[in-house]
Amino acid sequence: MATALRKLTPGRKRDLRLAAALAAPALIIMLIVAAYPIIRSFWISITTYNLKEPAGAGEFVGIDNYLANLTDPAFWHSLWVTVVFVAMAVTFEVSLALALALFLNRPFRGQGWMRILVLLPWAIPPVVVGVMWKWILNPSYGALNGLLTQFGLIDSYIIWLGEPFRALLIVALVDTWKETAFIMLMILAALQSVPKDLYEAARVDGASAWRILWGITIPLIRPTLFVVISLRTIWALKSFDLIYTITSGGPSEGTTVLGYYTYIESFVRLRLDRGSSAAFIMAAIVMVIVLLYQRALYREVGQ
Amino acid sequence: MSGAQRARRWFTNLQKPLGKVLFGLIIAVIVFTVLAPFVWMAISSVSTPRALAQKPPEWIPNPATWERYKALFTSDSSALNLPVTAETFRSAIFTSFLVATTTTIIAVGTGAAAAFAFVRLRIPGVKYLLLATLAVQMLPVLVLIIPLFLMMQSLGLLDTHLGLIVVYSGYLLPVVVWILVSYFESIPPDMEEAAMVDGCSRAETLVRVVLPLALPGLAAVAVFSFLSAWNEFFMALIFTSSNAKTITVAITEFTTQAGADLGLMATGGMIGAIPPIILAIAAHRYIVGGLTTGGVKS
């Protein structure tokens, strides 16, 4: 044993040297593109940096930029819009994905094709999804208005994106169109790992389908449900592309989510200090969700 | 047999075909919901402006027009009022291909090397490093974008292919490393040890044993990287203006500047969607398996 260890030591040294060489390129890229910008961004958020007023730039102001955001009604409005959007999108996506996964969890003809088909909305660029739906929802020439008129369901063309809440709901539905399929595939993968004899045993005991669902299926796929809910929450919080292409934050700021608000502050109003602090507030919200998710997941695994 | 019994028998016998019909119906609804928007975009891209301006629109274009595709690919835009020049659009397609391909190579290459080092070579503190990379991935890009903009400005990397490639690689690496780490961990070390007993060095085991076994995982992260880079919009919007404009930015310009022709944004959308669709179909078996293993997804 001792001789083996002594023999290994030079090998271990070589291993570490190799490890450093292998890990270095990736670490350097991540340091440049992620670590350094985070620190600098934080610095900007506690100083003044307004591209329209270059004279007073770089002055240390502490938490003033954060306070400026937190006392701005527009910030709170966008936070509220974000919460509503995330709640709608995640609820629609996860419940629909779960229902579809339970429904499709059986062998049927064309199953392979189905799996490829549902990947398509996930694979294409969000901005293409955005322009596509914007065109379908067009108030004057859109296909949706045309179709509904043809079937006699509406009398006159509707301005779908004309009201703040309806516009937000529609963006959430477009997000659902894009994201549900992938969540469904993840849930399906989890469902297929549930042992079949558990179902059979329950059926022999005379359990109803409803009981089996809540007593066996849901508890067993809970970790996966957990993962998809948290990931979707985090990603929906960061939504930008669909909003930019479909509504540009309107009408009357009804779809200005936090990401869009930060973008406007930074790159339209050019108040980089305000934008940076808003981004950090957003990051803090994301981090809180990640931590809650981590804790809950550990509790889950610990059971 | 009583009437009630017969009725019940009749009902049970009916249940099966009814269930089948219902199943088929729901499948049809799913297929329609997924496909109809695509199909309408495709039809719009080959419909004449007059056909699109009907209420309701002409669902089947007669005759179909290939004017828009021709205008974008041959610059023969006499008949069309293009919001961005055809040259700009073609250069955007080229940029997206170049940037997405190079980003994929860099992210997967350096990511696989790092993941191997993390899993097999026991770097002290590696667990925290991994958690830190994941935390970065969770952050909104907005936290990074202003300093990145300033950095690129001072290095002259704004509106260049190289700038986009570096930024995209850095942004994708955490996910790539994370997925590959979970993949490499699932490969039993015995095979590498056996190879080492046979005289392979560590580096050789990586190339000869680990990489071939991890091929599905590598394929998954490569597809993920290419799709993410091709589909990325926000950073491209901020970091590029003319020279390195990507396809996603060019497509949005069709909608913001387009004059009369509404079919043109459908054409742009089609061109932007076709490469990811082809890739998704070709690599579908790797996507779901690979990305759900890592549990992370963009």
Distance between the termini of chain B: 61 Å
The shape of chain B is flat
Helix content of chain B: over 70%
Number of helices of chain A: 12
Named CATH architecture of the largest domain in chain B = Orthogonal Bundle
* Model regions low in confidence, pLDDT < 50 over at least 5 residues of chain B: 294-298
Q: What is the arithmetic mean of pLDDT of chain B?
A: 84
Main beta sheet of chain B:
none
Tally the beta strands of chain B: 0
| Shape descriptor of chain A | globular
- Oligomeric grouping of the chains: heterodimer
Essential attributes:
heterodimer; A: 303 residues; mainly alpha; MetI-like fold; 76% helix; globular; B: 298 residues; 14 helices; flat; disordered C terminus
Can you walk through the features of this model?
The complex is a heterodimer of chains A (303) and B (298). By secondary structure, chain A is mainly α. Chain A has a domain at 72-270: MetI-like fold, CATH 1.10.3720. Chain A has helices at residues 2-45, 64-70, 73-104, 111-123, 126-136, 143-150, 164-192, 196-204, 209-237, 241-246, 258-268, 272-302. The longest helix of chain A is centred in the N-terminal third of the chain and has 44 residues, at 2-45. Chain B has 2 domains: 3-74, no CATH class; 86-294, MetI-like fold (Orthogonal Bundle), CATH 1.10.3720. Chain B has helices spanning 3-45, 49-52, 67-74, 86-120, 126-138, 141-155, 161-185, 189-197, 202-213, 215-231, 234-239, 247-257, 263-282, 284-294. The chains are: A mainly alpha (303), B mainly alpha (298). The interface between A and B is large, with 90 and 91 residues.
